[in-house]
Design goal:
Length: 453
Amino acid sequence: MTEDSGAPHGPAADTIAALSSGALPAGVAVVRLSGPAAGPALAALSGRDLPPPRRAVVRALRHPGTGRLIDRALVLWLPGPGTATGEDMAELHLHGGRAVVAAALAALTAGGPAVARLAEPGEFTRRAFLNGRMDLAAVEGLADLLAAETEAQRVQALAQAGGALSARIAGWRARLIEARALIEASLDFSDEADVAEAAEAEGLAVAAALKADLEAALAEAGRGERLRTGFQVALMGPPNAGKSSLMNALAAREVAIVTAEAGTTRDVLEVHLDLGGYPVTIADTAGLRDGVGLAEQEGIRRALDRGRSADLVLWLDPADGPVLEPPADLAAGSVLWRVATKSDLAGDGAAGPARRCLSVRTGQGVGDLVAALAAAAAESLKGGEDALVTRARHRAALEDAVGCLDRALAPGGLPELKAEDLRRAADALARVVGAIGVETVLGAIFSSFCIGK
Ligand SMILES: Nc1nc2c(ncn2[C@@H]2O[C@H](COP(=O)(O)OP(=O)(O)OP(=O)(O)O)[C@@H](O)[C@H]2O)c(=O)[nH]1
Ligand SMILES: [Mg+2]
């Protein structure tokens, strides 16, 4: 794939085909085609004229070279430009067997005038973007919608895919144009000082109000980004504290190896939970101790890294042993809950006001911990569904725009330079929707899609 610029391009010369539905075998498999040969290819396989646009019809599909029957399928002819990609498209709703789909794709890519080639990951969406059917923020929203694992993530992604961020960016850019026009007008009236001053002041007032709006969106950015990636919880503590046992209990499956030997876990292991609609990632880590071999040392280094970047650290140590202190930087840097494990081995008294108490063996306290985690995740992520900023890329662009507005609003300075700063702020916002300067991010964004999207 080439690195195209963000501006809409002319129609693509070639036609792409891919399985767009999920893993096979399945009840139905949807193969999509996009490009100038979509119609001829559909006609060639069905051996007849194209069906009426946007109407599902049943057709016997045959290999155009050999005439052998591939499948009897529901087919759709979707002439552009009013399609997902903006190009001519066709869909084959096949019986979802591996050999059926393989035979259909082989026939579509076999050669002749109606030939298609297999699509690369994200190529349908890339064409939608290049043909101006979607902007970059909507493309990212679509990627998030496909990846959404919980209800709150779905709501957030659907809003962005539907253009919530794009619409706000358009509104903000319109206000920047207004502010700039007022300041440029003040230059035209430079011989009438009071008119010029009034126009400049009005322009700066528009810019100041806009800056407040951008700052409000940035204040919610943390929630928006966290909801996208999930609330990060790290299980930490000394070896044998029962971290992996708790991870397995939370996941309700045997994700991590548990043994009575200290130093069992080395790599960071993750499970994704849906707690009350909010995404929570639990990370099991190596037990912290000194004087161990190279592999375990590396595990401990990774454990500490994970703990430092977590939203919440659960510091586990066994109820029947001494209370151990977490490393000072962990305790200072992250929110940390102390948890006494293996409460079945200790009498009463393991719990305290500052310490939760649980046993994976008896189940005591585990439900309470899950409820507390769900509440903490909700507290941290609530409202993230409505946050406009969901990625570091958006945040950087908005921060850039605020920086430009700061310069424009600084006291003194020439109106010409203020107008230039407003233009720069508009450019920063344009990057979010991919209207300019997107070459460097396109490859990364589209490659996150699966083939057929
Ligand atoms: N009695 C009792 N034993 C437990 C409980 N939870 C874990 N254990 C035991 O404690 C031992 C260590 O458990 P792990 O879950 O492997 O501990 P860990 O913290 O992951 O240990 P490392 O990976 O070595 O750091 C195993 O023998 C578990 O069966 C519990 O609630 N009660
Ligand atoms: Mg372990």
